[in-house]
């Protein structure tokens, strides 16, 4: 479908940013998987690269397609991370976490000199928040954490449903063993203020606001590729 080809076009443009011998972080989600497929074709043709996966799911795909990976402990300093996003604004602020891998994605992106976001152009927004913000929580005292988030976001003027992410009829469990709350704020006019406020709640492990991490976004649309640079 043309959605797949748009993902592939963005993935190919991201590959063009790589150099042989780089250590790269590899994201999670369908666009990141298109990138792994593009990468595997070049690896098969002799392109030397080592990846650090951001999820078990991505790790399994790399193994299946012959892209060599190491752990972040083996490669703690990465040249670039290539990853998808659920929303990208004009300042390269992101909402991520739709695929449930936000904690490892954020740690890997933070360990990289650069972060390249690949997405179809439908992910570009004026203001973040139409996509529900994933908030990864420990789960101990979940109701207390939930109430703290509710109270705190209301003081920021943010309303909307906050729901526990499910996998079938059971709570979704992340690779790190945590739970995810999805908060439908609708619009987040001040992502920095929200990020700082969430950091004050001890039960929150991490959230899907990626600020000051992306250095480039490659957005594929029906009329071509748009590159956004920080
Ligand atoms: O979970 C994530 O952050 C993923 O990158 C995801 O949000 C983007 O997934 P997609 O490429 O399948 O749209």
Automatic annotation (TrEMBL):
E.C. no = 5.3.1.6
Q: List residues binding substrate.
A: 28-31, 83-86, 96-99, 123
Q: In which pathway does it act?
A: Carbohydrate degradation; pentose phosphate pathway; D-ribose 5-phosphate from D-ribulose 5-phosphate (non-oxidative stage): step 1/1
The record's section on CDD domains has: RPI_A
- Could you tell me what reaction this enzyme catalyses? aldehydo-D-ribose 5-phosphate = D-ribulose 5-phosphate
GO MF terms held by the record: ribose-5-phosphate isomerase activity
Going by the entry's taxonomy, the superkingdom of the source organism is recorded as Bacteria
Q: Which UniProt keywords apply?
A: Isomerase
Tell me the active site.
105 (proton acceptor)
Q: Does the keyword Isomerase apply?
A: yes
What this chain does, per the entry, is described as: Catalyzes the reversible conversion of ribose-5-phosphate to ribulose 5-phosphate.
Q: Per the similarity annotation, which family is this?
A: Belongs to the ribose 5-phosphate isomerase family.
Q: Which NCBIfam families match?
A: PRK00702.1, rpiA
Q: How does it assemble?
A: Homodimer.
Q: Which HAMAP family match?
A: Rib_5P_isom_A (MF_00170)
| Name the record gives this protein | Ribose-5-phosphate isomerase A
Gene symbol of the encoding locus: rpiA
């Amino acid at each position: 479908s043309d959605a797949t080809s748009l993902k592939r076009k963005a993935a190919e443009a991201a590959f063009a940013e790589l150099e042989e011998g780089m250590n790269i972080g590899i994201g999670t989600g369908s666009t990141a998987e298109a990138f792994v497929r593009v990468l595997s074709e070049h690896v098969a043709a002799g392109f030397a690269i080592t990846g650090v996966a951001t999820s078990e799911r991505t790790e399994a795909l790399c193994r299946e397609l012959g892209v060599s990976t190491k752990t972040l402990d083996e490669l703690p300093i990465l040249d670039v991370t290539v990853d998808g996003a659920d929303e990208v604004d004009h300042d390269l602020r992101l909402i991520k976490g739709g695929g449930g891998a936000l904690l490892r994605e954020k740690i890997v992106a933070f360990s990289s000199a650069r972060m390249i976001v690949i997405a179809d152009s439908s992910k570009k927004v004026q203001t973040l928040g139409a996509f529900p913000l994933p908030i990864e929580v420990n789960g101990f005292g979940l109701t207390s954490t939930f109430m703290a988030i509710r109270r705190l976001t209301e003081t920021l003027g943010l309303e909307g449903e906050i729901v526990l992410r499910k996998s079938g009829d059971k709570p979704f469990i992340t690779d790190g063993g945590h739970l995810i709350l999805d908060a439908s704020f609708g619009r987040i006019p001040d992502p920095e203020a929200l990020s700082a406020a969430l950091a004050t709640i001890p039960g929150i492990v991490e959230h899907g606001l990626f600020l000051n991490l992306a250095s480039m976004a490659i957005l594929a649309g029906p009329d071509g590729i748009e590159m956004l640079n920080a």
